[in-house]
């Protein structure tokens, strides 16, 4: 369904954040009317009803779904200052993924016109490249190099394709289309006679076009990426451009080349110096090919001058490699323009809006999440009783999770909860529980009976807690540090993960940030929501571990890069709002001060031993988070410009892990729809699966040889079963860098 243009609507009004309404609301998007369900965001409602709404992260981290609220009221779920400027906020812009209608609303999404027409000609150029010529009802307004959205009669699918010719007054446009394995539209184009078929084109989009200057031009194309290059060259000829132009065209074999004759003829009509260089990367040595061989990126250096302006188009790995080569050879990023060709096979995406029948939650469904609190209270008893009880407490916890997950099976239920406020209260209870664990752990190593706490307990329960503390050995205190660190991770970080996603709820955010303070990681509330969810499974994400990485290296690398990322995100927000960087408004600084205050309190409770105990436990809790990050996205790849899908996270439905971690285990759905509360996350049994439950997988990750032995087959299976063609190219690059023999070997096939 295409969005239609609609302008001249009334000025926007925003609802107070406290206002709520459970009724169905009408949403008008560029004139197209849909309905939203109670508590549903504008974006979720649009996607559920077939609206082709621009989006990516779905958690308010990228601004791809930015739109203008023309009329009505919305409840905003996030701090839009992280992404929208004051000017945009004044003009009524909102993030569709973070806006819940509180009344009927009208919004305007930046949109382009839709054109209709029919197929004039269909020509097969190579075994996987087809040229499609279309006659439209009127001329399309576009710059040579831009792309449009194309749909064809007989196929319920639309895809983006660059136009391969300069603007034509008669409305003729040409497309060069690559056949994608399992690609619905591209396979339909190849397998059917489309002559006379009706088409619909919407656009144009993109910022890939020839800039005006006098600099020499270097154009690099791969695969169907030649399309916008041809359009820009044709436009250059029409405009009489005299700039030197070199075109590097990369292909695998001679039979993969196309449009060679046309490109060679351009030399006669291009008014400046013209050079066309086809490069084959996999042409057999015994063939008659006398042209260039190797990677097209290896030929860049010999065709450069200091003032070269470069235009790159093709598969993302080629574009990224070419960009890197250009920068290394002195070309500034301002002179590099790129268009990554992505052809995601959407059949690989799991349905994140499925409507499985959901039974009404019973008492047991509410009670199962209290198992989390029982774990926390049990650890308190173990720490207070000291000695052997601390050891028993730690190893009983490990046994409970590892063996429990192994024998209890999977939990695939997603009941409908009539009282979600009870579940929120369960989350909030984590702060008093963790605070008491914090006190007990610091008291357990204190040289004195702080506040007479031990004497009071002894009087009440008849067990000499002070004597037990004195008789606790150094090793048993070490086990206490590990146990406390586990609680900081389980009770603190996991709960905070859920709470800090509720950016619209000040109480949840406050509790969540204090829970994170115990692991010195309040920056998680910034980087995770506005960084990790945006860049997950890409090389830009500090938390995503590349193939072959050691978990111990990842702990340090992710921690350092995560803090840098959070600082940069927060500084950008403060600058947008014209607030001082080194001020109370800086959430990064405030967060670390919160952690320092806990260090001071630990000192007051337990002196130097109590302070050191807490610091060690807190750092271990932080390390646990990075280990969890390591195993949740290890080895996965994603194109940054493509929306996050369930396939981009490792999932598990193990019962004990799910119940005691507020469904963090259902990570595939969480990253696909970050706004969904934990109780509504779906199990997705067909998603990529972890080794086992969370604690089991953590233990395995801590033994790198075992980890790589078990995970390498899973990564290869992910490549075969889930990766799109472009992601397979990224996977090949990741395999080369991994140093793991099995991954290196897979690149040969």
From TrEMBL:
Keyword Transport recorded: yes
One Gene Ontology term of the molecular function aspect: oxidoreductase activity
Disordered: annotated span: 1-22
GO biological process: lipid metabolic process
Pfam families noted in UniProt: FA_desaturase (PF00487), FAD_binding_6 (PF00970), Fer2 (PF00111), NAD_binding_1 (PF00175)
Record's keyword terms, sorted: FAD, Flavoprotein, Iron, Membrane, Transmembrane, Transmembrane helix, Transport
Residue intervals passing through the bilayer: 422-445, 478-499, 592-620, 691-711
Keyword Ribonucleoprotein: no
Top-level division of the source organism's lineage: Bacteria
Occurrences of domain FAD-binding FR-type (ranges): 112-211
Domain 2Fe-2S ferredoxin-type: from-to ranges: 25-113
Protein name (database record): Flavodoxin reductase
Source organism (scientific name): Leptospira ryugenii
Taxonomy of the source species: Bacteria, Pseudomonadati, Spirochaetota, Spirochaetia, Leptospirales
């Amino acid at each position: 369904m295409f969005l239609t243009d609609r302008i001249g609507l009334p000025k926007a009004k925003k609802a107070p954040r406290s206002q709520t309404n459970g009724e169905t609301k009408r949403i008008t998007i560029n004139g197209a009317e849909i309905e939203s369900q109670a508590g549903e965001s504008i974006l979720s409602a649009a996607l559920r009803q077939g609206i082709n709404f621009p989006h990516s992260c779905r958690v308010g981290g990228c601004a791809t779904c930015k739109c203008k609220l023309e009329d009505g009221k919305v409840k905003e779920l996030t701090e839009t200052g992280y992404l929208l400027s004051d000017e945009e906020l004044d003009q009524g812009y909102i993030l569709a993924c973070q806006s819940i209608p509180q009344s009927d609303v009208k919004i305007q999404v930046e949109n382009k016109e839709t054109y209709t027409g029919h197929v004039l000609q269909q020509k097969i150029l190579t075994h996987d490249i087809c040229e499609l010529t279309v006659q439209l009802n009127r001329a399309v307004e576009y710059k040579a190099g831009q792309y449009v959205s194309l749909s064809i009669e007989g196929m319920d699918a639309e895809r983006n394709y660059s136009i391969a010719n300069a603007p034509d007054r008669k409305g003729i446009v040409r497309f060069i289309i690559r056949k994608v394995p399992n690609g619905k539209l591209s396979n339909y184009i190849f397998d059917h006679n489309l002559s006379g078929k009706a088409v619909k084109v919407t656009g144009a989009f993109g910022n890939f076009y020839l800039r005006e200057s006098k600099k020499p031009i270097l154009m690099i194309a791969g695969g169907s990426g030649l399309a916008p290059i041809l359009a820009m060259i044709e436009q250059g000829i029409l405009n009489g451009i005299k700039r030197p132009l070199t075109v590097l065209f990369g292909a695998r074999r001679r039979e993969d080349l196309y449009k060679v004759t046309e490109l060679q003829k351009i030399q006669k009509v291009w008014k400046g110096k013209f050079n066309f260089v086809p490069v084959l990367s996999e042409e057999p040595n015994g063939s008659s090919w006398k042209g260039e061989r190797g990677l097209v990126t290896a030929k860049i250096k010999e065709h450069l001058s200091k003032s070269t302006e470069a235009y790159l188009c093709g598969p993302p790995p080629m574009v990224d490699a070419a960009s890197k080569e250009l920068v290394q050879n002195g070309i500034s990023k301002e002179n590099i323009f790129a268009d990554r060709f992505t052809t995601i096979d959407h059949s690989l995406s799991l349905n994140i809006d499925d409507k499985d029948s959901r039974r009404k939650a019973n008492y047991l469904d509410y009670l199962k999440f209290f198992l989390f609190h029982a774990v926390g209270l049990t650890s308190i008893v173990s720490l207070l009783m000291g000695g052997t009880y601390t050891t028993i407490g730690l190893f009983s916890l490990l046994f409970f999770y590892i063996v429990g997950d192994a024998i209890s099976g999977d939990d695939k239920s997603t009941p409908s909860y009539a009282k979600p406020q009870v579940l929120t209260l369960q989350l909030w209870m984590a702060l008093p529980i963790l605070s008491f664990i914090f006190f007990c752990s610091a008291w357990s190593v204190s040289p004195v009976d702080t506040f007479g706490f031990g004497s009071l307990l002894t009087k009440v329960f008849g067990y000499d807690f002070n004597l037990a503390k004195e008789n606790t050995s150094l090793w048993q205190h070490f086990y206490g540090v590990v146990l406390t660190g586990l609680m900081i991770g389980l009770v603190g970080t996991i709960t905070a993960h859920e709470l800090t996603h509720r950016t619209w709820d000040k109480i949840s955010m406050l509790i969540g940030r204090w829970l994170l303070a115990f692991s010195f990681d309040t920056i998680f509330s910034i980087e995770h929501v506005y960084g990790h969810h945006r860049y997950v499974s890409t090389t830009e994400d500090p938390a995503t571990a590349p193939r072959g990485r050691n978990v111990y290296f990842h702990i340090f690398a992710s921690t350092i890069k995560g803090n840098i990322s959070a600082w940069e995100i927060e500084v950008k927000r403060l600058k947008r709002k014209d607030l001082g960087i080194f001020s109370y408004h800086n959430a990064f600084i405030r967060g670390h001060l919160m952690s320092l205050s806990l260090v001071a309190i630990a000192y007051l409770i337990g002196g130097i031993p109590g302070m050191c105990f807490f610091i060690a436990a807190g750092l271990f809790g932080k390390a646990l988070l990075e280990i969890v990050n390591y195993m949740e996205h290890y080895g996965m790849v994603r194109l940054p410009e493509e929306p996050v899908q369930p396939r981009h996270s490792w999932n598990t439905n193990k019962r004990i892990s799910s119940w005691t971690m507020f469904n963090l285990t259902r990570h595939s759905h969480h990253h696909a729809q970050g706004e969904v509360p934990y109780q509504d996350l779906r199990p997705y049994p067909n998603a990529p699966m972890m080794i086992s439950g969370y604690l089991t997988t953590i233990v395995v990750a801590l033994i790198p040889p075992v980890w790589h032995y078990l995970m390498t087959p899973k990564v290869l299976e992910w490549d075969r079963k889930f990766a799109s063609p472009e992601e397979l190219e990224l996977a090949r690059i990741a395999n080369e860098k991994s140093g793991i023999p099995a991954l290196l070997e897979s690149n040969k096939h």
